[in-house]
Amino acid sequence: MEIKTIGIIGGTGRQGSGLALRLAKKDRKIIIGSRSEEKAISAATIIKDKLGDEYEIIGANNFRAASLANILILCVPIQAQTNILKRIFKTFTTNKILIDVTVPLETSIGGKPDTLIRLWQGSAAQRVASLVPNTIEVVSAFQTLSASALHNLSKSVDSDVIVCSDSDSARETVMVLAKEIDGVRALDGGALSNSSIVEAITPLLIHLNMRYKVNDAGVRISGISTQ
Q1: Residue partners of 103: CB distance under 8 A and separation at least 6
Q2: What is the spatial distance between Cα 56 and Cα 212, in angstroms, rounded to a whole number?
Q3: What is the domain-level CATH number for residue 131?
Q4: Is the Cβ–Cβ distance between 130 and 89 less than 8 Å?
Q5: Which portions of the chain are predicted below pLDDT 50?
Q6: How many CB atoms sit inside 10 A of residue 217's CB?
Q7: In a domain, 130, yes or no
Q8: How many domains does the chain have?
Q9: What is the structure's pLDDT at 227?
Q10: What separation in angstroms does the CA of 210 have from each of 69, 109, 112, 215?
């Protein structure tokens, strides 16, 4: 699929705005989505202030962002996932790729930030797939990227991105997108069911950040050449 416009649902958070910053820097057309259009516009303005007015990034409410984009990135807490998908459901009228970045952490129920919640569907991405029409290609990606690393434009992001989907073409499209982030290597993670393994890496990285007093821990898979 051609990457035309990227809508980041929940794009005002640290992870979403970090992805918006990195992808806008590569001249991608970005729409930051939020429940509050005013908040989304403010987030877009902050990013344009960092990059320059020539970059294409705007803010909109979630419904408008989902309507205008053919690639959606869902960056919301697990407790908000279902309600947001319901609110933008009517925008799923044509083929789109939906990239889920959600990780089900215990913080959503008042628990620890470095502990995973096990979902009946297997993973947050599989849960998304059960909630959207079959015309939407669901992809799991970007969970291993530190928000702090994404926002630090003075450094490359030192991490692999493992991309999982039941659609080969959607997986390939998202791998192309992931590789546009400086320092990122995109790896084919196979079927969407493997997203449960990838999502479980995030709480481990959070624990390592806390244990070693850093904020940009990433993951690299050894022994693979992608050249």
Answers
A1: 78, 116, 124, 143, 199, 202, 203
A2: 37
A3: 3.40.50.720
A4: no
A5: none
A6: 20
A7: yes
A8: 1
A9: 61
A10: 36, 20, 12, 8
Q: Which segments within 43-200 are labelled E, that is strand?
A: 57-61, 71-74, 96-100, 136-140, 159-165, 184-188
In a domain, 224, yes or no: no
181-205 pLDDT tens trace: 999 999 999 999 999 999 999 999 9
pLDDT at 57: 95
For residue 70, being part of any structural domain is answered with yes
Structure confidence at residue 2 (pLDDT): 84
Which element (helix H / strand E) includes 206?
A: helix 201-211
Indicate whether 225 belongs to any domain. Answer: no
**Amino acid identity, position 30:** I
Q: Hey, which residues does 72 pair with through a beta bridge?
A: 7, 98
**CA nearest to 132, candidates 190, 189, 192:** 192
* Structural contact between residues 59 and 32, judged by C-beta atoms closer than 8 angstroms: yes
Neighbours of 139 (CB within 10 A): 32
Q: Are the C-beta atoms of 9 and 75 separated by less than 8 Å?
A: yes
Structural domain span for residue 154: 5-211
User: What span, in angstroms and rounded, lies between the C-alpha atoms of 36 and 197?
Assistant: 33
110 vs 33: CA distance, rounded Å: 26
pLDDT in the model for residue 150: 97
State how far the Cα of 172 lies from the Cα of 194, in Å rounded to an integer: 16
